[in-house]
Design brief:
heterodimer; A: Tachylectin-2, Chain A; 9-stranded mixed beta sheet; 5-stranded antiparallel beta sheet; 26 strands; B: Serine Threonine Protein Phosphatase 5, Tetratricopeptide repeat; Rossmann fold; 2 domains; 8 strands
Chain lengths: ~325, ~425
């Protein structure tokens, strides 16, 4: 059965999210994350130094197969930086500011540089970006980092950085895509099938597991995703599932699909949408969601190369999730 | 950005809407996004040319981003696999290799492209930086030089000038003009020296010719001047574009052996220094395009009639521009050698323009299309009929419409 393309199923408003190519060199803009901050619609857009080249039907594969990260050939790093956009009520960009991190940056020790897939949110009146950073150890170990940012005038600056340990033994190789729970400061949904909720303490620099649910057979692993936001007294998030594939000659390929999940306040999954893509890309990724003024709004990246914000009618979305 | 293109893509998701959205991103220099949608189009379309065009477009996006030459090359190679008889990918690959100074590869792609290009293929929909029929020839010409195939290079540039001179876009026009001017002719082809052994064969044995051991001009210009003026002694010249004081000089023999005086103009520092060291007559270190010739010639106090005017600068447009600056209403010149460089003039226009102009000033064309060989027409030789003997003019007149080998013109070979 073919997956849904959600923009075919529901009425929507959509805007591309762009950053001037003079600032980016025209490489990928991906995985945007929206957040309403004091009534202003803000979006963090990740910029990378590469293009994702994806020959989805393997008709024009390149040297590493159908899926290639084409970074500059004299620079083996996959480098990320971030831009903070402010949008108006029609989702048009009214300002774009580079997220300055240089005060806290240290010499990278691995090829993946920068804060990747930062989710934007506010806890205790502080604005945060939280994503994965993999440049602090020579083996590329990934940990979620909670970066506090300030916005003043034309400047957006990272002012603190907390590298979150994994819960329990902190011996995993890579932690990524934890979903911040907007209404529960310092809590994340780390994993969705089975669900795992963790709480972090920036003072003691610790992380503890506070909820662990049951695995639901028949479903794949579900990983974040957007932030976890409250919707009609429940928690809601967009998660993804991925099929990692190999071509006949062993080159890697992948297909990402999304689901919208609703939990009650005790983390019981009460609704799960069918898997869908946004715009029929095999690699898409959603890092931001919100419900605002009757709109169910999501931000997503298309093939790591383009970014969009899309708004649906909240009731239409509920009907869609209910199937 | 035209959002309708995005909405059309979402609605139709067909090859056309993918291509239109890709172009929209491309126009905004959002190359990564453009790549995604070109690739979508490439994989969806049944239109073979459109798929090919998308591959080229992706490669152009890589090129604009820079530092992705390997990926660019890989894409273009696939475009060739896809449509091996189309010329565009060969051109882009050859150009890419040229930019990387991979001359043999550049030459290779250009040569193969020329050999198997099916000239009946339909044009692509959009601009892919392929300039047209001369593109591959141009690439082959440029790369052949650096592969050591210098003769082939010259021939290819000639072919471009003759067959495509009027089609060249501005950038290629400039590049072709610059290249042909710089590479010139082979030294052995460009120079036709005269020495005493040839004196018996001179068509017109002017006074004093028997005493000339050797000349200095590239193509017998000095011998022509003396022919038209019957070996005149103590004449006066004005030379624009002096270059070396002896090698290829049209005035060295006049000064050294026939006692002429005159003034030369030269822009290059080292040539001026050498000239001053080795020649008695003065050279002026100036840009010949910046001179008020009326004021300058008056300041020389050499009278209004000169025996010889040389106009020899590059490119042909410059020489013609200088010609227009000479105040022919006030000064007369018995003999003029005008270098129109027809064989390197991509516009093929300055020879005719100069002829029309000099005729209007009362000059008579005596020897047309003088060449150092059998094909490279580069100069016309003129006289003022009031200052040169009519019988000599009639005897030496040769306007054939074909390039004239300079030596064959003056010597009974």
């Amino acid at each position: 059965m073919q997956d849904d393309i959600i923009l075919e199923k529901l009425k929507f408003e959509i805007e591309p999210l762009l950053v001037d190519s003079k600032l980016t060199g025209g490489t990928g803009l991906l995985n945007p994350s929206l957040f309403f901050s004091n009534g202003k619609l803000m979006v963090n857009v990740r910029h990378v130094n590469y293009n994702l080249y994806h020959s989805e039907n393997e008709k024009v594969s390149l040297f590493y197969g159908p899926l290639n990260y084409l970074h500059p050939e004299d620079d083996i790093t996959l480098t990320t930086n971030n831009f903070l956009l402010e949008l108006d009520e029609n989702y048009k960009t009214v300002s774009c500011k580079y997220v300055e991190t240089s005060k806290l940056d240290v010499r990278p020790l691995w090829e993946f540089i920068g804060l990747e897939d930062g989710r934007l949110f506010n806890w205790d009146d502080k604005m945060y970006l939280c994503g994965v950073r993999r440049d602090t150890t020579p083996n590329g170990q990934g940990r979620m980092e909670l970066s506090e940012i300030t916005i003043s005038g034309d400047k957006v600056e990272e002012i603190s950085r907390f590298r979150i340990p994994a819960p329990l033994k902190d011996d995993s190789y890579c932690e990524k895509n934890w979903m911040p729970i907007l209404d529960l400061p310092y809590h994340f949904v780390k994993w969705c099938n089975p669900i795992e909720v963790v709480k972090v303490d920036p003072i003691t620099k610790t992380c503890e597991q506070i909820h662990h649910g049951e695995f639901t057979p028949g479903f794949k692993d579900w990983r974040g995703g957007s932030q976890v936001f409250t919707w009609k007294d429940n928690y809601c998030a967009v998660v993804h599932e991925v099929d990692l594939l190999k071509t006949e000659i062993g080159n890697k390929d992948a297909i990402y699909r999304h689901r919208i999940i609703v939990w009650d306040k005790d983390w019981n999954r009460i609704k799960t949408s069918k898997p869908f893509s946004f715009m029929d890309g095999k690699i898409e990724f959603c890092c931001g969601g919100a419900v605002h003024n009757g709109k169910f709004i999501l931000t997503f990246g298309f093939q790591d190369n383009a970014s969009y914000i899309v708004a649906f009618d909240e009731n239409d979305m509920e009907d869609y999730i209910n199937g | 950005m035209d959002k309708q293109k995005l909405l059309d893509y979402i609605k139709y998701r067909d090859d056309e809407s993918c291509f239109a959205l890709a172009q929209e991103y491309h126009k905004e220099e959002q190359y990564a996004a453009a790549i995604s949608f070109y690739m979508k189009c490439c994989e969806k379309t049944e239109d073979k040319n459109l798929a090919y065009e998308c591959m080229l477009k992706v490669s152009l996006c890589f090129m604009r981003q820079g530092r992705r030459e390997f990926s660019t090359k890989c894409l273009l190679q696939q475009a060739i696999w896809h449509s091996p008889t189309r010329p565009e990918a060969y051109f882009l690959l050859s150009r890419l290799m040229e930019w990387q100074r991979q001359w043999f590869e550049s030459y290779n792609y250009a040569t193969i492209g020329i050999a198997i290009w099916d000239k009946s293929v339909a044009p692509l929909r959009t601009w892919v930086e392929y300039p047209g029929a001369y593109g591959l020839l141009f690439q082959k010409a440029i790369s052949s030089w650096w592969c050591g195939k210098t003769d082939e290079c010259r021939k290819l540039f000639q072919e471009i000038i003759i067959n495509h001179g009027n089609d060249l876009d501005e950038a290629h026009g400039r590049a072709v003009q610059y290249s042909v001017t710089r590479i010139g002719l082979r030294k052995e082809d460009a120079f036709n020296p005269y020495d005493k052994s040839k004196q018996p064969a001179l068509k017109f044995k002017f006074t004093g010719s028997e005493n000339i051991e050797q000349n200095y001009s590239q193509c017998y210009q000095d011998m022509f001047i003396l022919t038209m003026l019957n070996g005149k002694r103590n004449g006066k010249y004005f030379e624009v574009g002096a270059a070396d004081p002896y090698y290829g000089s049209n005035t060295a023999l006049l000064e050294k052996e026939f006692g002429w005086t005159g003034h030369s103009l030269e822009i290059l520092d080292h040539e001026v220094a050498k000239f001053r060291e080795h020649r008695s007559n003065p050279v002026h270190h100036v840009d010949a395009t910046k001179i008020n010739y009326r004021t300058f010639l008056r300041s020389l106090n050499m009278g209004n009639d000169f025996d010889y005017l040389q106009l020899d600068c590059e490119p042909p447009s410059t020489t013609f521009e200088i010609l227009l600056g000479i105040p022919f209403d006030e000064f007369r010149f018995a003999v003029i050698t005008f270098e129109h460089d027809y064989y390197t003039d991509i516009t093929r226009s300055y020879r005719d323009k100069s002829r029309k102009y000099l005729l209007s000033q009362g000059y008579e064309l005596v020897a047309a299309d003088i060449a150092p060989n059998n094909w490279a027409s580069f100069e016309d030789w003129w006289v003022h009929p009031d200052l040169v003997d009519r019988e000599t003019i009639d005897r030496m007149k040769s306007v054939t419409g074909q390039p004239q080998h300079c030596e064959k013109y003056l010597i009974n070979v």
